[in-house]
């Protein structure tokens, strides 16, 4: 066994083993996702979490969002607390899952917009990091590097991969449809502009995106 693995150069063997590990975790996660979708969408750290206030009530919000998600060709489901959805698999988005849930407040309904990754995708970073660290002669740091980079991507997701956030663009059709109920969100940073409808500049990031 030792001679067999020794015959294969480590530079090939190690990424292959990592890829195998990734496939196993990916398979487990896929099964968990399809059998426990609701649980899956609500669990684990969110890589993007925003709260948008509106003056609508929960039933109004549901009736507005329901057809919009279909029109945007998003797949998912509706549950007691809100909506869970993702882009169609055909759009090569194995990455994000979105949980949009409601909270009744004194002023109406607040929408919580939460984006979570398909977690096993993080493991794909391991072979990439390992190969890079090998190229720079830092193989001893592989595990630390891989764990560190994965944590870094999770923590800084919205800055590292703004295009993935922009692709969903904070659900523009949903935001526009709820604008008559006072819902207003800064397109650039996601700051809740509820009650700031007359301001032309976001108080958080200074972006001058006009209110819808
Ligand atoms: Zn802003």
Summary?
By secondary structure, this protein is α+β, with helices and mostly antiparallel strands. It is built from nine helices and five strands; from the N terminus they run αααβαββββααααα. A hairpin with an 8-residue loop joins strand 3 (about 80-85) and strand 4 (about 95-105).
What do you see in this structure?
The protein is an alpha+beta fold and 212 residues long. It folds into two domains: 2-175; 182-212. The chain has nine helices and five strands, in the order αααβαββββααααα. Helix 2 (10-35) runs antiparallel to helix 5. The mean pLDDT is 80.
Count of β-strands: 5
Q: Report the bound ligands by name, code or SMILES.
A: zinc ion
Beta-strand portion reads 15-25%
Rg calc = 21 Å
């Amino acid at each position: 066994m030792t001679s067999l693995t020794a015959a294969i150069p480590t530079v090939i063997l190690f990424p292959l083993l990592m890829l195998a590990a990734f496939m196993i975790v990916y398979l487990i996660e896929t099964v968990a996702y399809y059998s426990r979708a609701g649980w899956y969408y609500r669990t684990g750290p969110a890589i993007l979490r925003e709260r948008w206030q509106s003056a609508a009530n929960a039933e109004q919000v549901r009736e507005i969002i329901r057809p919009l998600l279909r029109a945007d060709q998003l797949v998912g489901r509706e549950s007691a607390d809100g909506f869970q959805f993702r882009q169609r698999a055909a759009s090569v988005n194995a990455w994000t899952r979105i949980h949009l849930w409601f909270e009744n407040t004194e002023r109406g309904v607040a929408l919580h917009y939460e984006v979570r990754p398909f977690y096993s995708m993080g493991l794909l970073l391991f072979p990439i990091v390992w190969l890079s660290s090998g190229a720079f002669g830092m193989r001893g740091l592989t595990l630390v590097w891989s764990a560190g980079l994965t944590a870094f991507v999770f923590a800084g997701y919205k800055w590292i991969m703004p295009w993935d956030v922009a692709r969903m663009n904070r659900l523009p059709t949903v935001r526009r449809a709820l604008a008559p109920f006072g819902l207003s969100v800064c397109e650039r940073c996601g700051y809740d502009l509820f009650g700031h409808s007359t301001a032309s500049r976001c108080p958080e990031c200074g972006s001058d995106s006009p209110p819808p």
